[in-house]
Amino acid sequence: MGAALSWAREVVPPKSKFSVNNIPDLAGEVIIVTGANTGIGKETALALLSHNAKVYIAARNQPQSEETIRELKDKTGNEAIFLKLDLANLKSVKVAAEEFLRYYSLNSPETQLHVLINNAGVMFPPKDLLTTDGYDLQFGTNVLGHHYFTKLLLPTLISTAQTSPDGKARVVTVASSAHLFGSLDFATFKDGPVRKKMSPQSLYGQSKYGNIVSALELAKRYGNQGIVSIALN
């Protein structure tokens, strides 16, 4: 099946057989959603809070995140927790993971993380923009930042899976049908002559392809330890 046909089928999917109303009570579930201060992540946080999950909104913009938290509390009666995370800065990613583990260990007798939703991302930024560590902004934010954040929290996810009733912990990565037009070229992860020849659209497709590679590899390596890792459009 060609990429164009696959893309067309994903753009017009069949009617969903599952709705937000089908989500069970999530009391006791601890979930981090990156980029949950706006867009898809915000709607995800709304659904999760509506079903009593403990939700961490991991994002860079603190004022906007705090406004989102107030808005979601008004709608659901449940209050999310802000976790400062800049995915375009690997030092910030490490600090965020450490802060989560520190905060939660102080507020729970046992650190748990049932679901990590890798949602935050950038799309078609000016091509001259790079991450703090010198990576292409789209690849660095969409793929590398999430990969590092997941890696740092992986021991907690594995330990949670071992004590969860279903023996599972989940990592959900938001990709895109744009992956159909992407591939991975190591020469373009940082700036250089090869990257300069690529369009922002191609670099975005590469990042979404990278999301899927990362999600599938995580499932392959840690599925036998209870990690359910999937990517979605």
From TrEMBL:
- What organism, scientifically named, is this protein from? Serpula lacrymans var. lacrymans (strain S7.3)
| InterPro entries assigned | NAD(P)-bd_dom_sf, SDR_fam
User: Which superkingdom does the taxonomy of this entry point to?
Assistant: Eukaryota
Name of the protein in question: NAD(P)-binding protein
What keywords is this UniProt entry annotated with?
Answer: NADP, Oxidoreductase
Give GO terms: molecular function aspect only: oxidoreductase activity
Q: Which family does it belong to?
A: Belongs to the short-chain dehydrogenases/reductases (SDR) family.
Q: Name one Pfam family in it.
A: adh_short
